Amino acid sequence: MIERPLAVSCGDPSGIGPELLFRAYMRREKLGLPPFAILCDPDFLDARASRMGLAVPMRGFSEWSETASIFPDALPVMALKARFDDCPREPLIAHAAGIIESIDRGVDAALSGEASALVTLPIAKAPLYEAGFAFPGHTEYLGALAEKQTGHAATPVMMLAGPGLKAVPVTIHVPISAVPGLLTGELLEETLRITHQDLQTRFGIPKPRIAVSGLNPHAGESGKMGREEIELIEPVLARLRQEGMEIAGPLPADTMFHERARAGYDVAVCMYHDQALIAAKALAFDETVNVTLGLPFIRTSPDHGTAFDIAGKGIAREDSVVAALKMAADMASGSFSS
Ligand SMILES: NC(=O)C1=CN([C@@H]2O[C@H](COP(=O)(O)OP(=O)(O)OC[C@H]3O[C@@H](n4cnc5c(N)ncnc54)[C@H](O)[C@@H]3O)[C@@H](O)[C@H]2O)C=CC1
Ligand SMILES: NCC(=O)COP(=O)(O)O
What we know:
Its cofactor is Zn(2+); Mg(2+); Co(2+). One of its GO terms (cellular component) is cytoplasm. Helix content is 39%, strand content 16%. The chain has 338 residues and is of the alpha/beta class. It has 2 domains: 200 residues, Isopropylmalate Dehydrogenase; 133 residues, Isopropylmalate Dehydrogenase (3-Layer(aba) Sandwich), CATH 3.40.718.10. Strand 6 and strand 7 form a beta hairpin. Helix 5 packs across helix 7 and helix 9 packs across helix 10. The site of the ligand NCC(=O)COP(=O)(O)O has 7 residues, from helix 7.
């Protein structure tokens, strides 16, 4: 049980995020959900709920301590300065400032301890870039905010966590052509150390078993299909094994995700975004959660995006949002460490 609520940033208001939170709220008792509150434009939320015929009680608050008494009867809403138009399926560049304000204020609440954790609803990257947002996604932005606000360096590590697989990409939102250049021994080592530490401290796995993929087909086939495995990955793994970490690899990425292979490790660390995320989403699209490791606060998110094609139609599934709320609460309460 968490003592303070989860802060939920609103994501792109033209996407499916808000309606999924409405549905989660309406099923809160049946699902045993922890208390949560959204940072958004209250008029927009009213408009979206009534457009969709959802009778969601909502009540404004200004102090996080008020949410405990509100949540049983109404979805607590902290009003943003920004205003949103209710236009499902039509992302607007004009919404960018409010989307970012919501994330910023959610981070403030999580860092100050007023909220137990931050759960982010999906953002669409392209409209934010057009508005001048300089970060590839939440993950990188949250790392920069953490660094700015605490004065300590933070390397955010993306992990997709589902019922049968935890998977970490070492390089994240970068063009595939840039991956080999960005993949350095330092980045790999830091990612492995953060993953190892956060699986221990946030997920209660005392001795994490880590499987590391190669970069090339067949993990390089002894150097005949690429040399990154020999020259870059193996030396890092050897060093960390000497420190006592349990690490297998570099493994061929195509054979490390089948069921028997997955039974042999707690987390797969992969070299680039699609190696990790295709496996995670193919196995459990509805249940998987995107969690950021390496931050001084807890952040989870559904694994899916804004799904503009179906926003406002009442057909989007709330499972991954529900899983993100539950995982954030479990991490905050230490439930994983039993
Ligand atoms: N955590 C975040 O903020 C994330 C944001 N994105 C962003 O979302 C935008 C759209 O990305 P896409 O690649 O189209 O991925 P998407 O996940 O938004 O949609 C992919 C497909 O899955 C379906 N889908 C997604 N979520 C669903 C749900 N809850 N229930 C039923 N069907 C669902 C969509 O209708 C679509 O057909 C992009 O701008 C991307 O950057 C993508 C992933 C995560
Ligand atoms: N593909 C995952 C994704 O786009 C989510 O990224 P982030 O916004 O959580 O950094």
